[in-house]
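Journal club side-thread
Mid-discussion, someone asked how the predicted structure for our own chain would compare to the paper's figures. Pasting it here so we can look after the session.
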Amino acid sequence: MNGSFLSGGQKLARYLAMPAGRNEPLPGLILCHGFPIGPIDARHSGGTFPELIDRAANELGWAAMTFTFRGCGESEGDFSLQSWVDDLRAAIDHLIEEAEPSGIWLVGTNTGGSIAVCVAADDPRVRGAALLAPRADFDDWAEQPRRFLEHARDIGAVRTPGFPKDYEEWSRELRRFRPAEAARRLAPRPLLVMHGDDDESVPVADARVLAEAHGSAELRLVAGAGHRLRHDPRAVAILLGWLDRQRLTDAL
């Protein structure tokens, strides 16, 4: 990571790249990682994302940034769904302050995609979103919140003893944010929904729900691909192609 910004008093690590020698306003991209699967993932969340950010900046001409949500990587704090939404809102503010982009596009993998559409729906500064293997809701977490909280502690996304101070509020947040409803509100802004048809973690049906809720989303199912689309060259090629089309549309 090459910098940081504050969200709710917590310092979050970020990586920002801009193409050299460009003085005109550039489209802005923020890439959001998903919820960590295990302790190693929590410490290294989004670890390969700077490479993708560099490609978006240097090959496609974006002011591109990724960051780690609180409770992950080098960022401070502890996971809650509301705080991750707040973190992404703070990231948008930070990128606008740093780069003065012509607009903002959000890309998110897994939970990061679900968070991205929830934030994008209610922020007119966001011009479009791309979701890779997103979940359409957080109901499985909400059905057993105590078990999920223990899981978050076990993998290191909740680190502070005694967190959360208000468990009831922490658990209510798991039903507060509804990605499918957010996709409906995002329309008619562009939405790409990509999913592996062999995803072992999130059903392909979630991608269809999000795309149908939006009404004019581009739905791309990647044959034989699993949950980690970031590491599938075909998915990355689809994403970069979509971003290039967004950039060209922005330049018109």
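Post-session note: The chain is about 45% helix and 20% strand.
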